[in-house]
Amino acid sequence: MASIQALVASFFLVFAVSATALPTQVYPLSSPSSLSVGFYKYTCPPAEAIVRATLYEAFSSDPGLAADFLRMYFHDCFVRGCDASILLNSTKGNTAEKDSPVNNPSLEGFDVIDQAKARLEAACPRTVSCADIIAFAARDSVFKAGRIYYDVPSGRRDGRISRASEVIQNLPPPTFTVPQLIANFARKGFSMDEMVTLSGAHSIGSSHCLSFSNRLYSFNATHKQDPLLDPKYAAFLKTKCPQGNSKTDPKVALDSITPNTLDNKYYQQLLTYRGLFSSDEALYTSKLTKGMVLNNAKYGRVWGPKFVKAMVKLGSLDVLTGQQGEIRKVCGAVN
Ligand code: HEM
Ligand SMILES: *[C@@H]1O[C@H](CO)[C@@H](O)[C@H](O)[C@H]1NC(C)=O
Ligand SMILES: *[C@@H]1O[C@H](CO)[C@@H](O)[C@H](O)[C@H]1NC(C)=O
Fold first, then answer.
1. Shortest-distance Cα residue to atom 33 of ligand 1
2. What digits encode the pLDDT tens for the residues 268-288?
3. Does residue 329 fall inside a structural domain?
4. Pocket test for ligand 3, best of 85, 86, 89, 92 (most atoms within 8 A of CB)
5. Is-cis flag, bond preceding 259, omega within 30?
6. Is 208 a catalytic residue?
7. Whole-structure pTM over 0.85, yes or no?
8. Per-residue model confidence as pLDDT tens digits over 171-182
């Protein structure tokens, strides 16, 4: 033991000596530990309260926004890391993530984030990153919709690049099979159980008909309607999403019983074949993940803390910290 410790110690000693001896720039590593809870405690004490107040004002007229901020966080972090690349507007010659068909027009709430940023700039200029605003907004949305609270490690910085083409390369479509979902999340360092746990976010919000209407009208060569969709639920969905109505493309609640409550009822719906996307229902029908769905359906008190843990982990994906990136002045454009 002693010799191992000595070895480890001498390794760090050599590392420290060479690091000070050489005039090299040391870039901070982006590991989860590089973020910290209360990062703005001294530089901008009201930061988190300003974000929360701005969001709650918006929630009072549109409670559905909580789902948007939760989804925004996922879509920011899975594409180029949690660097607020989702918030950048397209420019001449560059279509940004925001304008990928995956996000436009279904993802909303950008104006609320812009408003929070404007208030933060007034209180503490050039201090709070847009990437952290998204992470705080996701946390506040989880609390608003689920009464589940957690602390958000912060200190992220904003990126300067956003490309629409990277969205479909990184985010899973609602037609994915379980092995495809597992592979997609594994690329970002998430386990199968974490993937199933995070999918519980689909217990709030809504979806455009186009994201699942293939299950109603054109499933495959032998089945027009997905046999893994409860026929009564399918009939209900058909009234909401009439065939050939792709121009108006209305929205349907992901969880038709408690659309604004974040809880484990999402998993209970899967047991009765009322998952809206085939990627949701597959979590129950696949042998790989069925047990996890059953557990989450049964034990909401186990799912909640697992969800929080996975959300915090999601927020550490490929973050920019220290001197990397920048603190944007406005979230829609680079400085
Ligand atoms: C597991 C793979 C996932 C797939 C295939 C998927 C796919 C989708 C699709 C297609 C929509 C509907 C978009 C529309 O047509 O309006 C949606 C909505 C949503 N997703 Fe996911 N998603 C996944 C995981 C996640 C995760 C991990 C989160 C957050 C932690 C999340 C949060 C949401 C929320 C809250 C909505 C509702 C948005 C609203 O009401 O505006 N999703 N998702
Ligand atoms: C259509 O889907 C059903 C149910 O998932 C499946 O059993 C069947 O093999 C599929 N048919 C084709 C032609 O893919
Ligand atoms: C980004 O685009 C939105 C919508 O077009 C607009 O309201 C906002 O002011 C733009 N932001 C910047 C920084 O250009």
1. 71
2. 999 999 999 999 999 999 999
3. no
4. 89
5. no
6. no
7. yes
8. 999 999 999 999
